[in-house]
Amino acid sequence: MKSTFDKNAEKFVNLMVEKIESLSMNWQKPWFSKVNSKQNFLPQNLTGRTYSGGNAFLLYFLCEKYNYQTPVFLTFNQARNEGINVLKGAVAFPVYYTLFCAYHRQTNEKISYDEYNKLSEEEQKEYRLAAYTKYFQVFNLDQTNFAEKYPNRWDILKAKFSGEEQPQEEKEMYVNPILDEMNKNQNWVCPIQTVSSDSAFYSISNDSITLPLKSQFKDGESFYGTELHEMGHSTGVKNRLNRKGFYENDKFNYGREELVAELISALSGVYLGISVTVREENAAYLKSWCKAIKEEPKFLFTVLADAIKGSKFIAQHLNIRVDVGEVEEEKNTKVA
C-alpha cells in the first residue's frame, strides 16, 4: 500500500516529467507559456495570498496543462465556506508544506518550532529538530460553480488575469526597464559584462557574469532569459545561498545546477513579464532530468526548493514584490 508521500509524489513527478518531455519535443517553447505577458498570473487563493515554494511551480504547470482561466485555487472546505460546489468528477491536486518541531532528547517532549526559537542556545542543545510534510488537496476555480454563483466576481477575476500575447515583431524589440536599469548601474551582486561572444557564463573564480551582446540574440526575451539564468547561477555561491552541489564538477551535480538555474530563470521571468525558454545547450539535459526525477522524487523537491530560493533572491535584490502573502495550511485538510 502506497504512503501519502508516495501517492502525492507520484502526482508531482508525473506533472513535472510531462512538462519536461513536452519541452524535449520542442525546447524553444517557454517553461510557462500560460503566463506569457501576464505578470500577475501567480497561483493563489481567493484572498490573493500566493502559493510559495515548489507548490507555485507545480500549480503553474497545472494551469497550463488544463488551460485554467485563473490561477486561483481553494480546498474543498474553502469552497464550501464560499457557498460554492466542486464540480462532479473534479480531481484535486495536492499542495505540500514542510513543518518543523523539536523533541527533547531525554523526555521526547514535543514543542513547536516557534517555542524552540525562543530557547537559549544552551537550552536548544537539549532538543533535536524534526521536519514533517503535510498535504492538502486543492481545486482550481474552473473546477467549481463559482462563475455561475458569482458572475460579477468571476468577471473581475478574469479581467485581473487576462493578457494577450504580444505580436512577434514587438517581442523582438522587447526591453525590460528593471533589468536594463540594473545593467546600466551595475547593481547586481556581481559584475555583468556584455561582449561580442558566442557564449554566456558565470565565472565562480571571478564572481562575474559574461553575456553576448543583446544584438546577437534572436529577440530581447532570449537575452534577458539568458541573463536571468546566469544570475541564477551566481546566487549559488557560499556567501549567498550556498547551494548544495554548487561546487561539484561531476555530471550529476552539473546537470542539477543547470536545471536549478533554468527554473530560477523561468520563475524570475514570470515576475518580470518575460517568456523564458530552455537554453539551447541545456536541451540535451531534458531527458536526463526526467530520468532523475522518475528515479528519485525527492530530487524534484530539492530542485524546486533551490529554484524558489534563487528566484526570491533575485526578486528581493531588484525590489520586485513577489508575494502579497503566502497561503497558509488549512487546519482541516480533509477533502470530502
Automatic annotation (TrEMBL):
Transmembrane segments: none
Residue ranges occupied by any Polyvalent protein metallopeptidase domain in the UniProt entry: 195-302
InterPro entries: Antirestriction_ArdC, ArdC_N, MPTase-PolyVal
Pfam hit, one: ArdcN
Coiled coil spans: none
Occurrences of domain N-terminal (ranges): 7-139
Gene Ontology MF terms: single-stranded DNA binding
Superkingdom of origin organism: Bacteria
Name of this protein: SsDNA-binding domain-containing protein
Organism: Bacteroides thetaiotaomicron
